UniProtKB/TrEMBL annotation:
Residues 133-180 form the RNA polymerase sigma factor 70 region 4 type domain. It holds the Pfam family Sigma70_r2. This is RNA polymerase sigma-70 factor, ECF subfamily. NCBIfam families: sigma70-ECF. Keywords: Sigma factor, Transcription, Transcription regulation. Residues 10-19 have a biased composition (Basic and acidic residues). GO terms for biological process: DNA-templated transcription initiation. Signal peptide: none annotated.
Amino acid sequence: MPVAQRFRRKSAEQDEAAPRPRLHAVGADAYPDWEAVYRDNVDRLYRLMFSKVGNRPDAEDLTTEVFLTALRPLRVSASVGEVRAYLLATARTVLAGHWRRTLGREITTLDEERDIAAFEEGVVDPRTPARAEAILAQLPERYGRILRLRFLQACSLKEAAAELDITVGNAKVLQHRALRQAAQVAEGMEP
């Protein structure tokens, strides 16, 4: 008997002897596929991220990072509620990593319903613009300028670097230092 036939025969015998996985019913509140998970949750996660970081490029990057991080461990057979809870927990972790990279410290509090509702309604604490200007006024001119470009004018890192006539790498370092100093200034101010 040729080797290929013996191998096929042995594989067929092993397949018959191996226990078959048990099937379980998936509830009607489960997603049919990964595309449905993405479509149902992408807008909600993007709005949440945008409400936290305040600019489109970072919100898009963080939303993508949430889905890429959650893709492998998440079961498509999980209920809609479980998927949403897992994506929110993943978003919290991704956002904490973002703040750790940019501010040098973790900020992990998310009040999803309040943040999304405030974003959709356009509700902003009336003291926020004045507080932001007070913080920016206490920073060195270059720090204030990079933060204004990135977060108030929603420029990309590349656009901000071009405006400041510096390299993108230098703009990253400048933004990082500016955010750290702004956080220190904000801590010293009254809430």
